[in-house]
Amino acid sequence: MPSVEPDNKPSWADQVEDLDDDVDDVPTTSGSSKVDAHITLSDEELPPPEEVIDGDTKVITEYSINDEGKKVKIIRTYRVETRKASKTIARRKAWPKFGDSEYDGPGPNPSTTAICDDIFMTFVTNKEEALNDKEEDPMAKLKGTRIVQCRICKGDHWTTKCPYKDTLGPIQEELEKSDKPGEPGAAGAKGEKPEQAAPARAAGGKYVPPSLRGANRGPGESMAQRRDDQATIRVTNLSEDTRESDLQELFRPFGAISRIYLAKDKVTHQSKGFAFINFHRREDAARAITGVNGFGYDNLILNVEWARPSNQQ
Amino acid sequence: MKPLMLQGHTRAITQIRYNREGDLLFSCAKDTKPCVWYSINGERLGTYNGHNGAVWALDIDWQTTKVLTAAADNSARLWDCETGKQLFQWDTNNAVRTCGFSYSGDMIMFCTDRQMGYNPTLDIYDIRAGEQLANNAPLLSIPIEGPKVTSAVWGGLDEYIITGHESGEFSQFDVKSGERVRNVKIHSKQINDIQLNKDRTMFVSASKDTNAMLFDADSLDHLKTYKTERPVNSAAMSPRMDHVVLGGGQEAMQVTTTSTRIGKFDARFFHLIFEEEFGRVKGHFGPINSVAFHPDGKSYSSGGEDGYVRVHYFDPQYFEFEFEF
């Protein structure tokens, strides 16, 4: 099944090859490929390459076997262009290659010379310049607005640069100021979300067994001493050296803690990097989340969120 | 235009130069092998192998028979242009920062850095004199006091050498007496490049202070200023039109530290007289370290920190473009 692909726009790779052969032919010529066709043959032998020069066109016919074992006939047509140059330039054109290019064939070596995509010079008139200035503006605009806001003191700097970074004081003061500890401003929204999300998850979307449906659970509930997960928070990204006493110290200010569970490696007894803190009151837990989430502790930024009930994934 | 991209270097290009007729393009980079290319099709003619350090500068004599390179391996070397063989090697105490052939091609100069307790010197040799080379005894060795030389060219009639310094000042040294004849300081930061115009009466300087300036080569009078917002690494004057091309951009070491969008690595074309920018050509991925006009003014090349040399043949629009005034 012979297939012919007339290629009006040769790819850049072909072009390099083209120039290649072209310079090979006459040192002071240059040209470009016009046709690049691939024909699949069914013959067994490879005929020798042909080169026909007719006036200012040169046609080279080559045969090769491609990766699929098919024979490919490649016809390349060049326009031969003779350029006049001074004797010195013509002489230099005939210089043998040397150095790292010593073994390069005639013509440009594709590994060192490539032809780039078409680019254009953009002419700058005064109008365009004005446009350019406008383009610059977004950065200038941003200068006025506050890109970053400190989580600790709400200042115009990164949290890590905050002068109060190592003191929890300001947070707590702020928390005390706000009347409803469950929703203190923007940071409080973080605490709110999981609260709303948890019931939503139980209600819609996934299949929930009848025993778990509704607010009052049925008699299927057997574990009488179920821990109250409502006021449990999960702290992740703790450092390995964290101990329970550290957590106690960190979360005590937010309210009474009923239990601290720090996950530890069985063998090394080092922290696994996360912990669960049970508060007595859910409001305390919410405050702890808003207060400590994103707090830098031992070079790590703590991630504090509501613990998901362990029985439902 | 479809630029030719020359990928012969593995590190940042430091300087590119055409020979007098413009059929060959020479490039050197922070790798050790300066290359020579046919400017017409980007074919690499050869490399000059032998240096052991970054090559900071190179020059070609007017007959295109010899190539002079200045390198950080404490040597300046003279090569046979045709064969790539090394003809001579000057060993210095320091890295050689800049070098140049006199217009006659008979004399060479190179200037060393200030390092390891050695002061920079500007050495001038007559390469026809075998005893000067054999004894490593320069015709003239000018010690440079003050800031080191970062760029230097031979002045108009080979009577003096114009040097650009780290501090932004220019000096003129008399080749016969070795005296500092003139000294001006208009740029505020390091001079990165000095290129003379075709008749060698003016030169355009490129400086880290984000400006390029045009000076009279004899009197060192400041004539024009081309302002940009980035350090200018190289500037060249068109031999055909009243145009100047500037190459530069953010300093390579700062490219990754800023959050502004990439770019500003374009070659920028200014009108020589009106000092106004009229065109830009994009293409490099990093700052442009060296630009050069083809001696016929129909093409120009730029070598960048990205290690590529790009040869641009102007479109007809460039020649048709008329500056409005």
TrEMBL record, chain A:
Residues 231-309 form the RRM domain. GO terms for cellular component: eukaryotic 43S preinitiation complex; eukaryotic 48S preinitiation complex; eukaryotic translation initiation factor 3 complex. Keywords: Cytoplasm, Initiation factor, Protein biosynthesis, RNA-binding. Residues 1-52, 175-232 are annotated as: Disordered. The keyword Cytoplasm applies. One of its GO terms (molecular function) is RNA binding. It is found in: Cytoplasm. It comes from the Eukaryota. Belongs to the eIF-3 subunit G family. RNA-binding component of the eukaryotic translation initiation factor 3 (eIF-3) complex, which is involved in protein synthesis of a specialized repertoire of mRNAs and, together with other initiation factors, stimulates binding of mRNA and methionyl-tRNAi to the 40S ribosome. The eIF-3 complex specifically targets and initiates translation of a subset of mRNAs involved in cell proliferation. This subunit can bind 18S rRNA. HAMAP family: eIF3g. This is Eukaryotic translation initiation factor 3 subunit G. It comes from Branchiostoma floridae.
From TrEMBL, chain B:
WD repeats lie at residues 6-47, 48-89, 184-225, 281-311. SMART domains: WD40 (SM00320). One of its GO terms (cellular component) is eukaryotic translation initiation factor 3 complex, eIF3m. GO terms for molecular function: RNA binding; translation initiation factor activity. Pfam families: EIF3I (PF24805). Component of the eukaryotic translation initiation factor 3 (eIF-3) complex. This is Eukaryotic translation initiation factor 3 subunit I. It comes from Branchiostoma floridae (Florida lancelet). The lineage of its organism: Eukaryota, Metazoa, Chordata, Cephalochordata, Leptocardii. The gene is LOC118409441.
